[in-house]
Amino acid sequence: MPNPEKTNAEKTDLPRMSEEQTRIIAAALGPTAFDxxxxxxxxxxxxxxxxxxxxxxxxxxxxxxxxxxxxxxxHGGGWSMGSKTMSYLDGVIGxxxxxxxxxxxxxxxxxxxxxxxxxxxxxxxxxxxxANAAEYGLDPDRFGIAGDSAGGHLALMVGFTxxxxxxxxxxYGWPGYSDxxxxxxxxxxxxxxxxxxxxxxxxxxxxxxxxxxTANGKSAFANAFGTDSLNLLKxxxxxSLVHGGIPPVLIMHGVLDGVVPYQHSTLLDKKIxxxxxxxxxxxxxxxxxxxxxxxxxxxxxxxxxxxxxNRCLR
Length: 314
What we know:
Layout: H1 19-29, E1 32-33, E2 42-47, E3 55-59, E4 68-74, E5 86-87, E6 101-105, H2 117-131, H3 133-136, E7 138-148, H4 150-160, H5 165-168, E8 183-187, H6 198-204, H7 220-225, H8 230-235, E9 249-254, H9 263-276, E10 281-286, H10 299-313
Parallel strand pairs: 4-6, 4-7, 7-8, 8-9, 9-10
Antiparallel strand pairs: 1-5, 2-3, 3-6
Helix pairs in contact: 2-4
């Protein structure tokens, strides 16, 4: 792990990735295609809400006892790209081998949609799964959620704001059903939106990607959340929403992350432990991984998720 003890002189210039490093990471950030046909027991393009783009895919295990515990996967992509099949789903789909049902959800994307609408979408998918649990053999009392990058932020938001009307979006469907989950996996998601990233990169010496405006010239936060106001961003930062009733959280992050500083995860883990106790949060830091590292999209990653969800949902 990089040494945070730097002299003032060393902290003067923010370390940046080279053009070649930036190109490689930018390519890695692009969503990876997942082929639903690789799963035998599947139900694709299920309409979970009242809008045409509110669709999900449901994958069921080939063995195991019903009702199945469920893990809902939320894809990354800066809240502005990706889909339920253009994602890092390979790093989650291995949960089928452990007897879990896996749901991959589409949500409306920025800039056409602003927060909290895409959070409303994910929460509506949770309510759909509970409302239709009996039809598909799902256990409504054993729901987990996992997300990477922007999807990690949304997974945390779902878990930290369970059944709060202002975050629920019940107008899109299934009122009367809970949108809560019993366990959360956050993979390198941004959790402190109000804090600038530069001090974290200076502290750790990790090279960051150059700040790149989106296609419409706006910052990523302004694009997704409709604001650059630090006060408003604080209100939609998971670290600001930690409370004693949140479910167990597994946090995974690469120390070399040049997009979302790993301190987002170390500080979130610290806050959860302070508020909820040491057993409510588990942090795994990888010294050799960058943002959206391909190692997060592997069977080995699914195995780690299964160990966590087994402890929480079995």
